[in-house]
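B., you asked whether I could sanity-check this one before it goes into the benchmark set. Here's the sequence:
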Amino acid sequence: MNLLVKNRDVVLTVAVMLLILVSGVLAFQASSIPATRLINPDELVNALQSSKGEKPLMIQVGSHVLYAQAHIPGSEYIGPASSQSGLQQLRKRVEPLSRSKFIVIYCGCCPWSHCPNVKPADDALRAMGFTNIKVLYIANNFGADWVDKGYPVAKGE
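And here's what the prediction gave me:
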């Protein structure tokens, strides 16, 4: 009986350590994007409203539910970049574009340090040779950092 209790404790300890490790990896993902590749919401709104410069292709790489509830007007839904199918859709969408095309990707599903989508999307675009990519920095979530601040919103498909 003592052996069973000790084995159970070892298994529980290992399981907790794995959860901590996985949480750390996910938290590291979005936060490992260099600040030079980020764009803040107010900067993006200014770029979208400006009559100067190229307008970005805006791609939402999070959940469809989030996109349907509220998204940046003119942005395209691709699918979660944390999945292979979402990454395939992203690659397919941008393949014919110039590698210097201004692209903004965003998610907004959760706090920045826990987002599973923006880092894989950024990595995929960079691996394809895109050089003018910005990731919208959403500190908490899309509702708090975009919608509640009164920035432009579209709803539905």
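One thing to flag: The radius of gyration is 19 Å. Otherwise nothing jumped out at me.
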